[in-house]
Amino acid sequence: MDLLGFDFLVDGLVVALTEPRLLPLTIGVLGDWGSGKSSLMRIAAQELASLRNESDVDEHESDDGQESGTEQYLTIDFSPWQYEDHDDVKIALMTAVLDAIAIRVPEAAERIGRLRGIVAGLRRWGRRLGRAGAGAAPAVLPVLLQGTMPDLDAGTVEMLTATTGAIATVAQNALSESDPPAESSTEKTSTPRGDVDAFRREFGLLVQQIPDCEAVIVFIDDLDRCLPETVVDTFEAIRLFLNTPKTAYVLALNQNVVESAIDSRYPELKKPDGAGLGRDYLEKMLQLKIAIPPLAEPEAETYVNLLFAELHLPSEDFTRVLAKASEVRRENGLAVAFNIGIAGSVLDDIPSKLAADLKWAADISPVLGSSLRGNPRQLKRFLNNLLLKHRSAARRRAALELPVLAKLMVLEDQYNTDFQKLFDWELAAGGACPEIVEAEARARGHGSDPDSEELAEESSTEDERPRQTRRRAPREVATEPAEGQTWADKTQIAEWLRADPPFGGTDLRPYFTYSRDKLSFGVSASRLAPHLQRLLTDVLSDVEANRRSHYPAVAALDSAERTQFVEALLERVQRDPASIALTTAFELAEKNTDIVPAVCAAVQRIPPAAIPRGAGMAAVRRLPLDHNDVTALLDRWESSESSGLSTVVQQARQSARRKGAKGGNVR
């Protein structure tokens, strides 16, 4: 079932695979983790499996009218990730393909037997190479490429071979040896190149022998989960052994991850400019690329709505809903293809639970789709987590409203420092906090004066005054009346505040009981986009020059990405205050003053005794001393029992007074 609206991508993939003149063909289905690569390949495989030979169908049509003829395309699923701990992946892939053909063509047993014998010989060569030394393994690629990829750029081959140096010699010697002839045997001795050529020749003949088969198509998934060795071995198996006429290989992969894996596998192989060969290698391997874009907001809303429809509807009704969604997508691909209105035109009766879920999902879909970057896996994971928490609350007879819990979880999932701030406000107020009222009023354009609503209530009836008094009372405990308004000025928070339902007047404490997974820690780095994950690794370098060279890239991030990046960095800080992450946070705050409140809020939750003296010195040198949050942080440190930290602050402030500094940094 296609819940993601991948029709246009599936069509492109199927058209390419069914075009004989393009074969042999290797296609890359490119996308981030969780973007739907596996779903796209599964749908394409199903469509290919539905293509039958016309003459065969006429002869073998079943009594119920269902087609029962042979398939035009032999499709094979393979996951190298499942084999990397148990077998040579090249051997596993070749064996999987031979097994599938053996089932389809039993009469080809003799040729398949010969191929299995060659595979066994290749396994022996692999073991011999291993005995030659682990360091020789990377050199196999250039050695074999010279003989099996004549179209490879000569300069690249020369550079590859020269760079491997002595290692290549070891590999060449190991591979040049031949198996000794068996006693009383007339069989010829074999070499690796001879076995490669023999396998390709026999395999090509085998594929041609499959009756009524247009092509053998192998779908390879999970490549970006594999170790670098497995990634390269998979490509080697395709290029060296299996890439023959009437074959195609479709690989699902995250391009950046796979390129990095190739670079990691061959660290000594560099181009003249110092770059690795990962990108060039991948360009050489993939004749066609199909990139999966992130879901746009309407597409994300459609996907979420269809997940709820699948949950609440019987299969027959859900099939009708899917058909209608496909029809809407064909007419307007970027519109919401299923919502409560469309449900009414398809279903005779909309289940009440489905109607309720579609209502609140529509309210939060803009912020949900953008915060999860249109990633289907993250959207589905969020919904599963939400429903589990709601059902857990129901078991304890906690009356939580699903829309409120969902909106709160969005904040927790993506902007944990702000989630922590809201929690602190609720805790301090003993219930519904005034800051959220101020923030919502500002974000929703109800006026910038937090007391405007209060003045309007002055003219209300006497009966309303007690209620007004109860609402005004919590304001007295707020230490900074405008804090909620300042909070609402953040772009991502303003968008979240405008989403329904509003929280003003709602006691959120029961909801925090079930939505507080990360009150102590920030956003998991694994949820970051790949380029943010790499940037996080770069700024955590122990070499100062290296990490500081990446700080401009942090400053160049847009507001939402920088917020998520800082959340992940502060998670590292709270997990290990003694790590370089704390110094990095202070150094980044020096040049990016918008993150100062988040950094100070996170550090305030760390016991002063856990703050290293060196990090304290970085704080007083880097942070703006005239900032209120910095002042509060240093006051805490100065009055703490941590003598080292207290002394650092005292000395810094004395130095500032001597220099007559009114503000700024202490250098």
TrEMBL record:
Residues 183-192, 644-654 have a biased composition (Polar residues). Residues 450-461 have a biased composition (Acidic residues). Residues 174-194, 441-486, 644-667 are annotated as: Disordered. It holds the Pfam family KAP_NTPase. It comes from the Bacteria. Keywords: Plasmid. SUPFAM superfamilies: P-loop containing nucleoside triphosphate hydrolases. Residues 22-390 form the KAP NTPase domain. PANTHER family: NTPASE KAP FAMILY P-LOOP DOMAIN-CONTAINING PROTEIN 1, NTPASE, KAP FAMILY P-LOOP DOMAIN-CONTAINING 1. This is KAP NTPase domain-containing protein.
